[in-house]
C-alpha cells in the first residue's frame, strides 16, 4: 500500500485511473486478474504508461484507430450510435472496442443515450502528443477524415445526432486540418484520395473535396501560393469527377447548400493561361455531364461579361461553385481578348469581401480579375 501511495504522488487522476485499470474484467487478450495487475501498475511510467497499457487491450480490434482518433478529436461528444454512424461502422464494433477501455473512457449504458467521453483531458493530451503516445498517436491529419465523415453524415439520412454533428462541424474539422502547422497539406490530400475507395454507403470523396477546396481558396486565410494553384485546379477536377460518378446523390449534392465559416481577408493569386486551359477542360466535362443527366438544371449563370462575381459566402452549393469557376474562365478569356497581348500574360485574381445588404443573409465574396503588371493591378473595377 505504501508503494502504491508513493507511486501516485498525490495525483487523484492517476489513482482513479489505476484503480479502474486494476479492477476491470479479464479478456482473452488480457486474462490477468486484479491481483496480477496490481504489481504491474507500480512499474508503469505514470499516466502515460497506464494509458498505453489500457489502450493496448483493444488495439488488435477492427476500427480501433478510427474510433479512438474520433473520440480524441470530436468537437463535442457523441453517443455510441452517433460515433458508429459518423464512422460508417456498426454500433457493436464501437462497443467491442470500448468495453476493454473503460478504465480510461467513459462508456454509457446504452447505445443511444449518454455520451462517450474521455475520463480525463490528459488522455487527449497523451493521444495528440506523438512523443508521449507513440503508436497510439492521433495526428491532426485525422481532422481531414473527420471532415469527410461529417460531410457524408450531413448529406445522408444518418442518425439524427451524427447528421447534426456533420452539419455543425464538417467545416471546423476541415479548417483544423488545413491550418495545422504539422500537416503537409498536398501530401495528406493525395494520401486521403488514395485511401478512399468509392463506397456505395458514402458520397464519393469527389463530392467532399470540390467544395472544401473552393472554401479553402476563396473563404479562408491564404495558404501558400503553390497550394492556391493546386486548390484551383483540383476544385474543377473534383467537380468534373463528382458529376461523372454513377451515384444517386449527385443531384442532391449539386443543389444542397451547406454552411461555411468564412475568414474575411482579401487576397490574390495568379491565373496563367495554362491553368486557365486546365480549368476550362474540366468545366466542359462537368457541363456536358450535368446537361446530359440533369437537363432541367440551369447552365452557367455568367458569361464573364460582368467584372464582378458576387455570391453568398455563408452557404455554398456545388452549382454555385460551378457558376463561380465558369465565370473565372469566361472573364479571363475576355480580359485577354481585350488586352491583345501575345502570349497571354498571367492575370491576378482578387478575392474581396463586401458587407451584406439588409435583405441578404450572410456575407458575399467578390472576385475581381485584373492584369498583373509591374505597376500593380489595373483594369479592375
Description:
The structure is a single chain. The chain has 381 residues and is of the alpha+beta class. The chain has a domain at 1-138. It contains 17 helices and 9 strands. The protein has helices at residues 2-8, 12-23, 34-41, 46-55, 64-73, 80-87, 91-99, 121-127, 130-133, 142-155, 160-178, 185-195, 205-218, 225-244, 250-255, 273-293, 318-339, and strands at residues 105-106, 117-118, 258-259, 267-271, 309-312, 315-316, 347-354, 364-373, 376-378. The strands form 3 sheets. Strands 4, 5, 7, 8 and 9 form a 5-stranded antiparallel beta sheet that branches. Helix 6 crosses helix 7 and helix 14 packs parallel to helix 16 (273-293). The longest helix is centred in the C-terminal third of the chain and has 22 residues, at 318-339. The N and C termini lie far apart (79 Å).
- The number of E-state strands comes to 9
| Biggest sheet details | 5 strands, antiparallel
Number of helices, counting only DSSP H or I runs of 4 residues or more? 17
Low-confidence stretches: 7-12, 356-381
Share of helix among residues?
A: 40-55%
Shape: elongated
Beta-strand proportion: 5-15%
Helix/strand/pairing category: alpha+beta
Radius of gyration: 25 Å
Distance between the termini: 79 Å
Q: What's the order of the H and E elements?
A: HHHHHHHEEHHHHHHHHEEHEEHEEE
Report mean pLDDT, rounded to a whole number: 80
Amino acid at each position: 500500500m505504501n508503494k502504491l501511495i508513493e507511486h501516485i504522488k498525490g495525483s487523484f487522476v492517476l489513482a482513479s485511473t489505476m484503480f479502474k485499470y486494476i479492477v476491470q474484467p479479464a479478456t482473452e487478450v488480457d486474462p490477468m486478474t486484479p491481483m496480477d495487475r496490481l504489481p504491474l501498475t507500480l512499474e508503469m511510467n505514470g499516466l502515460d504508461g497506464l494509458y498505453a497499457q489500457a489502450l493496448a487491450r483493444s488495439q488488435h480490434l477492427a476500427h480501433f484507430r478510427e474510433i479512438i482518433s474520433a473520440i480524441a478529436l470530436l468537437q463535442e461528444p457523441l453517443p455510441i450510435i452517433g460515433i458508429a454512424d459518423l464512422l460508417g461502422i456498426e454500433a457493436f464494433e464501437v462497443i467491442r472496442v470500448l468495453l476493454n477501455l473503460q478504465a480510461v473512457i467513459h462508456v454509457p449504458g446504452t447505445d443511444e443515450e449518454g455520451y462517450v467521453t474521455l475520463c480525463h483531458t490528459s488522455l487527449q493530451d497523451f493521444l495528440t502528443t506523438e512523443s508521449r503516445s507513440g503508436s497510439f498517436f492521433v495526428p491532426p491529419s485525422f481532422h481531414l477524415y473527420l471532415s469527410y465523415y461529417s460531410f457524408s453524415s450531413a448529406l445522408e439520412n444518418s442518425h439524427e445526432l451524427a447528421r447534426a454533428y456533420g452539419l455543425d462541424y464538417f467545416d471546423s474539422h476541415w479548417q483544423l486540418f488545413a491550418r495545422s502547422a504539422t500537416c503537409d497539406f498536398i501530401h495528406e490530400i493525395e494520401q486521403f484520395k488514395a485511401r478512399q475507395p468509392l463506397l456505395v454507403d458514402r458520397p464519393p470523396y469527389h463530392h467532399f473535396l470540390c467544395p472544401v477546396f473552393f472554401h479553402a481558396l476563396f473563404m479562408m486565410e491564404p495558404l501558400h501560393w503553390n497550394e492556391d494553384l493546386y486548390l484551383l485546379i483540383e476544385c474543377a477536377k473534383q467537380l468534373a469527377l463528382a458529376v461523372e460518378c454513377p451515384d444517386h446523390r449527385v443531384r442532391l449534392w449539386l443543389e444542397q447548400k451547406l454552411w461555411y465559416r468564412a475568414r474575411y481577408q482579401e487576397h490574390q493569386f495568379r491565373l496563367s493561361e495554362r491553368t486557365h486551359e486546365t480549368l476550362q477542360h474540366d468545366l466542359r466535362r462537368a457541363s456536358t455531364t450535368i446537361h446530359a443527366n440533369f437537363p432541367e438544371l440551369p447552365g452557367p449563370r455568367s458569361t464573364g461579361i460582368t467584372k464582378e462575381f458576387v455570391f453568398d459566402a455563408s452557404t455554398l452549393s456545388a452549382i454555385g461553385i460551378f457558376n463561380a469557376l465558369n465565370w473565372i474562365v469566361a472573364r479571363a478569356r475576355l480580359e485577354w481578348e481585350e488586352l491583345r497581348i501575345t502570349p497571354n500574360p498571367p492575370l491576378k485574381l482578387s478575392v474581396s469581401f463586401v458587407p451584406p445588404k439588409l435583405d441578404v443573409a450572410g456575407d458575399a465574396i467578390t472576385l475581381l480579375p485584373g492584369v498583373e503588371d509591374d505597376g500593380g493591378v489595373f483594369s479592375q473595377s
